[in-house]
Amino acid sequence: MTPEAFQARTGASDSAMADLHDFQARLTRMNAVMNLVGPDSLPDFWNRHAWDSAQLFHVKPGAVTWADLGAGAGFPGLILAILLKGRAGAHVWLVESLAKRCRFLECIVDELGLPATVVNGRAEDQRLKVEVVTARAVAPMERLLGYAQPYIAAGGQGLFLKGQRVEDELLQARKSWHFEAELLPSASDERGRLVLVRSLRRVR
């Protein structure tokens, strides 16, 4: 995918595209020393990272408050924050347990003036009220639901980016959790799925 195709699909403003190009350049530089993403994925930044993250808005277009668990290199959280910049009430919480990744995220947030806060801590220990809690490549569904439970209990919904083994993960997760889940196709990878979780409680 080209930047032009990304802008056409998302309706991103020219200022958002400038921020995305800046983020891409900083990520490329820092990845050489921090190993934030697989280096082979960087040439496909616009589809594999930017569009993969931005597609979440197609499911929750009106949501302005998000929490990204295990934010890592900023996918999907930084992409969401860039596209939400300037929207009333918008805020993204970037929850990450590794301090060095938090420093990278804070640098991007500060330099681009994004509506986001970096939280250095364990996802399940936070008490943040958001409309949507999300994550990408963090953990199998059984553990991921444990991380997301406080956010969903506070009234949010889960919307997670997962791979082709997600149905097996959901079967395993149902041994520990009661939940309502809807599987949606990924727009960035035909093998991927989006998992929308609307309710969640632990099996007793």
UniProtKB/TrEMBL annotation:
Which terms are listed as keywords in the entry? Cytoplasm, Methyltransferase, rRNA processing, S-adenosyl-L-methionine, Transferase
Biological-process GO terms, alphabetical: methylation
Q: What is its EC number?
A: 2.1.1.170
- Where found? Cytoplasm
Q: Residues that bind S-adenosyl-L-methionine, according to the entry?
A: G70, F75, A123, E124, R136
Pfam families xrefs: GidB (PF02527)
Reactions listed under catalytic activity: guanosine(527) in 16S rRNA + S-adenosyl-L-methionine = N(7)-methylguanosine(527) in 16S rRNA + S-adenosyl-L-homocysteine
| Coiled coil start-end | none
Query: Can you name one GO molecular function term for this protein?
Result: methyltransferase activity
Function text: Specifically methylates the N7 position of guanine in position 527 of 16S rRNA.
Q: Which family does it belong to?
A: Belongs to the methyltransferase superfamily. RNA methyltransferase RsmG family.
Q: State the protein's name.
A: Ribosomal RNA small subunit methyltransferase G
Q: Provide the species name.
A: Brevundimonas balnearis
The organism that produces this protein has a lineage beginning with: Bacteria, Pseudomonadati, Pseudomonadota, Alphaproteobacteria, Caulobacterales
